Amino acid sequence: MDNTLINFASDNSSAVHPVVLERLSTVNSGAVSSYGNDIYTEEAIKRCKLEFGTGALALSVFNGTGANTIALDIMADKYSMVLVPAGSHLISDECGAPARATGCDIAIVTEEPRKLTPNDLLPFMQLKGNIHKSQPKIVAIAQLTERGEAYSLDELKALRDFCDEHHLFLYIDGARLANATVALGSTLSDAAFGADIFSLGGTKNGFMAVETLIIRNLRLAGVAPYIRKQLAQLASKMRYLSAQVLAMFEGELWRANAAHANKMMQLLYEGIKDVSGIAVERVPSGNMMFVNMPEKLAEHLLKTFYFYVEKISADSDCARFVTSWDTKVADVEHLIAELKASA
Ligand SMILES: Cc1ncc(COP(=O)(O)O)c(C=O)c1O
Q1: Is the CB of 44 under 6 A from ligand 1?
Q2: How much is the pLDDT for 331?
Q3: Is the pTM of this model over 0.85?
């Protein structure tokens, strides 16, 4: 990315919040035990238990692909099938890591990238007991979804009920769980309702590099630390991951960062929703929005702003805009003005 461009491409492109850097510096003296046997990790685990229940196991890792791969490997048998919606990060952006690590088939159960429902899953239940087929075992969704939608509590409950009825595990990729939580006005725990395992994303929400797997289903807890190690995601200098988890909960920084990002996206949406010649895919719930626009308009905007585009026809593109904890009101207003002037 040319850093003279204004970032609407990714919350991964944003800087680290200063509170996180301060917290990192407070743990940055002297020697402590490695691999998580330190006081900061102990404190971070306590904080996660306070948020998610005393039974929950919290394991921090470096990145989202690692979190997803570990979670699936904890739940999978070698002959399992993981059921995901189209557009799932697991299948589209992880270079096959989950499939390679678990040996599972990953089946895409919707035609469009949208929220998964029990009806999408039902036909796959016919595979159960058929020796020639991989066996459906895990449902994996993202909260927010990769198209910026938030599953409501009722939608999560319906998926949980389905999983109970059909003996499936539910995994929630929470790379943007904080944005979904703010969108729903819920707790972090409820935004991941029903998940046997979910990830609590930090990296996209102003943190340096941390995702924490929360293992709620205690039948899965015993193997989890070993699988994290096998999949090369056990940090020797764990105190630096744990310091970020502590910063997340101090003054609810996770909420403030996500609330700002979501607010900036609402501002952008309100500013462009009625512009003729473009079409917003859907009202954004969190910090991500997709907009269909003429290719020439996208090309023009890309001279000033950085965002991802996907070709949808010979002369039109779908632009993905993402806001972050550090998105400035003036930059959103600049984008709105430029888009209005050029549409
Ligand atoms: C839904 C989702 N899950 C996970 C990830 C994290 O992946 P990683 O940190 O490995 O790049 C991303 C990042 O883009 C994502 O959008």
Answers
A1: no
A2: 98
A3: yes
Substitution site in 72, 173, 211 for ligand 1 pocket (most atoms within 8 Å of beta carbon) = 173
Tokens encoding 86:
């189209």
H helix or E strand, kind and range, residue 174? none
Block means of pLDDT (10 residues each) for the chain, 343 residues, are: 88 96 97 97 97 96 98 97 97 96 97 97 98 98 98 98 98 98 98 98 98 97 97 98 97 98 98 96 97 97 97 94 98 97 90
> Is the C-beta atom of 11 inside 6 A of ligand 1?
no
Q: Cβ–Cβ contacts within 10 Å for residue 316, how many?
A: 17
Bridge-partner residues for 83, per DSSP? 107, 139
Query: What's the CA-to-centroid distance between 180 and ligand 1, angstroms?
Result: 15
Alpha helices in the chain (DSSP H): 18-26, 39-52, 64-75, 89-92, 97-102, 118-121, 153-165, 177-184, 188-191, 224-230, 238-249, 253-272, 295-301, 329-342
- Is the minimum distance from the CB of 205 to ligand 1 under 6 angstroms? no
CA 98 to chain centre: 15
Instruction: Tell me if 275 sits within 8 A of 343, measured CB to CB.
Output: yes
Q: What is the DSSP string of 61-125?
A: ES-HHHHHHHHHHHH--TTEEEEE-TT-HHHHSSTTHHHHHH--EEEE--SSSS---HHHHGGGG
Q: How far is the CA of 113 from the centre of ligand 1 (A)?
A: 16
